[in-house]
Amino acid sequence: MGKNKTTITLFPGSKVLTFSHNFLIHLQDPSAVDSLSLLTHSMSSTGRSSTFINNCSGSAQHGMYPTVLESVFDRKAFRPVTNFSIPTLVNISFTMSAILDVDEKLQLLSSFLWLEMVWDNPFIRWNPEECEGITKISVATKNLWLPDIFIIEFMDVDKTPKGLTAYVSNEGRIKYKKPMKVASICNLDIFYFPFDQQNCTLTFSSFLYTVENMLLGMEKEVWEIADTSQDIVQTHGEWELLGINKSTPKMSLGTSLYDQIMFYVAIRRRPRLYIINLLLPSGFLIAVDAISFYLPAESGNRAPFKITLLLGYNVFLLMMNDLLPTSGTPLISVYFALCLSLMVVSLLETIFITYLLHLATTQPPPMPWWLRSLLLCCTRPRKCCPTAFQKRNKGLGLPPAHLPGVKEPVELVGNVSGPREAELSGCPQSTRAQEEEETKKQHLVNLWVQFSHMMDTLLFCLYLLFMATSVVTVIVLWNT
Q1: What is the rounded CA–CA span in Å between residue 10 and residue 35?
Q2: 20 to 30 Å CA-CA from 435: which of 171, 230, 399, 427?
Q3: Which residues partner with 270 through β-bridges?
Q4: Contact (Cβ atoms closer than 8 angstroms) between residue 127 and residue 170
């Protein structure tokens, strides 16, 4: 017959079925009519038929010849079922052997999978006793019908190597394993970087076959997939595999319904690299900036030191910028911005205190009474209650004019010039007035200097309080 026709030959007394291309049936024996009727009834009523058993007799001592399955290979374009109204069940499983990369900017997870698919082909069956005890053979995948299972989240060209083989058992069960480098899209949440955990999905589905033609099942339990992947996944990378879960939702596209299996892959970043290279140096610089408050403000060395520290911190951020995510606003960026803000605030506080000291030593302005009272209450709290101290001083026999109060600044200055120095001058009255003026000015300078130190201490305490609150808040957010 021509090459464009199909021949189905039924031998009486044997169980051999041969296919070619055009489904033209040729009966070599009239007794084959009953067999053909039985075959037709079997293909229309059942999904599997025991009549499709290849005969290895005549294949000599080498078992099955490839020519025995040539008819099956010619039919690889058709779904291997005896009844097309019955869907093909394809069981799938995979093993994640490596987590290659996680691209936060492109929102991609790159991993390496070993995908396994198992299905039945009722036309590839034989009796091992007649075939030299052969129970499993390897067949090139180019000769077999393969299910079009793909990953919905796949964002790259399938680079599966060509020329792979599949194992076929004597019962017609085909096992096909193929390696896959998968670049799948994943909705990454980098807010908790570098202590983040990501949940990515790998959805396996068919591209062409609906639920009427193909159903998906599990070849292994999901806990077996997770345990095997955790055992063999590369552990020296940045990410570690936490677990794998699954769900089996149906996917509806218009009037078509597709079966699919969705796997949820949970991974966690190892933060040691980022703790050593980012968090610890930043914490050290902030600690040095806080300790620099103990430098005397009068020396003028505090401001240059803080400026140098601030420049060094900016250089540090520029050098470590490659380790930070390029998209989104992670919490670590907020932490760095907070540290930079604290250093800027401390520099501004130093500039303010330096200005107050300069103003106090060159041309001190008159101090308002409320500020002088506040300063006196902060430095000598007992002087805020003059009534009580009047009673105490009466017991000591001191006149009211000598009571310590806000309007007596001379008491804070110290000893003034004695009368002997006044007698040595030519103008005793003018000299005394100048001495009193100098004493008042010196007292005012001391008040402004004392106020500057008090403000320095107050701002330093507020700085420490704000820094501790911010750091604790960031740590709590990271832990949650």
Answers
A1: 7
A2: 399
A3: none
A4: yes
Cα–Cα distance, 214 to 89 (Å, whole number)? 6
Side chain identity, residue 224 = E
Helix (H, G, I), strand (E, B) or coil at 16: coil
Q: Give which of 293, 305, 413, 313 is closest to 353, Cα–Cα.
A: 293
Report the percent of the chain where pLDDT is more than 70. Answer: 71
Instruction: Grade residue 478 by pLDDT with cuts at 50, 70 and 90.
Output: confident
3-class SS of residue 307? helix
Assign 309 a pLDDT band (cuts: 50, 70, 90). Answer: very high
- 434 in Cβ contact with 420 (< 8 Å): no
pTM beyond 0.70: no
- Helix H or strand E encompassing 377: helix 369-379
CA atoms of 309 and 401, how far apart (whole Å): 52
What tokens appear for 145 in the block? 């019908």
> Does residue 135 have a pLDDT over 80?
yes
> How many C-beta atoms lie closer than 10 Å to residue 413's C-beta?
17
Q: What are the Cα distances from residue 356, in Å, to 44, 205, 289, 298, 414? A: 100, 73, 21, 10, 23
Q: Which residue has the higher pLDDT, 336 or 60?
A: 336
Residue 88's Cβ-count burial label (10 Å; 0-12, 13-18, 19+) is buried
Would you give the DSSP letter of residue 154? Answer: B
The reported pLDDT for the residue numbered 95 is 93
- Which residues touch 231 (CB under 8 Å, ≥6 apart)? none
Distance CA 206, CA 398 (A): 103
| Confidence tier at 408 by pLDDT (50, 70, 90) | very low
What order do you get walking across the sheet with 260-269 strand by strand?
149-151, 197-206, 260-269, 239-247
Find, among 81, 67, 154, 84, the residue nearest to 119 by Cα: 81
Distance CA(196)–CA(479), nearest Å, equals 10
Contact 44, 55 (CB under 8 A): no
- For residue 74, give Cα distances in angstroms to 71, 177, 201: 5, 22, 37
Q: Would you say residue 421 has pLDDT above 90? A: no
Q: How far apart are CA 299 and CA 142, in angstroms?
A: 84
Residue 149 CA to residue 118 CA, distance in Å, equals: 11
- Separation of first and last alpha carbons in the chain: 75
In DSSP notation, 391-405 reads HHHHHHT--GGG---
